[in-house]
Design a protein that fits this description.
Order of helices and strands: HHEEEEHHHH
Helix content: 40-55%
Shape: elongated
Number of strands: 4
Strand order of the largest sheet: 1-2
Number of helices: 6
Distance between the termini: 62 Å
Structural class: mainly alpha
Radius of gyration: 22 Å
Length: about 160
């Protein structure tokens, strides 16, 4: 005995087809990759040729391996998450533990980039930004090239 094909319950099923999985990388994978490459870029940019750096928050000089990529406006602000002006090399204790590190960070950031660029960052931080996959990939490609250039220039090897 042959079965009859099932009838659709309503015409709505045709109006809202299930989304197909897209080929390639997920946006989360691109975000993680960009975070890693961007962090390496900032740390290399702010490192001295001798492999040390000065923490933007506390001013201490430490070895390259003890540094983090610290954000003035937190990474939750997508418009400034990968903005080089928003990030500087910080010692791990300032970036991860210190609750008042932004006081020194701001003071030294004003000296580093000036008040006009900080005001621009503040406007960017309070705006919405939804990154497209191709934009994330372009940033990954750009910062990967910069990491390779700075790594060779300063003689500091980083794994990306």
């Amino acid at each position: 005995m042959k079965r009859k094909p099932k009838k659709k319950k309503s015409d709505e099923a045709d109006l809202f087809p299930k989304a197909k999985k897209s080929a390639g990388r997920k946006p989360v994978d691109l975000t993680k990759k960009l975070d890693k490459v961007f962090s390496a870029y900032i740390r290399l940019r702010d490192a001295m040729p001798n492999g040390c750096f000065r923490c933007i928050s506390c001013g201490q000089i430490k070895s390259f391996s003890q540094g983090d990529c610290g954000h003035f406006f937190s990474r939750t602000h997508m418009a400034t998450r990968w903005e080089p002006d928003n990030c500087s090399m910080e010692c791990r204790s300032c970036n991860r533990v210190s609750s008042d590190h932004l006081i020194g960070y701001r003071r030294n950031l004003v000296e580093k980039i000036g008040l006009d660029r900080i005001n621009r960052l503040e406007m960017m931080a309070h705006s919405q930004k939804h990154w497209l996959d191709f934009e994330l990939q372009e940033k990954i490609d750009y910062f990967t090239r910069e990491v390779k250039r700075l790594s060779a220039e300063k003689g500091i090897n980083v794994k990306i």
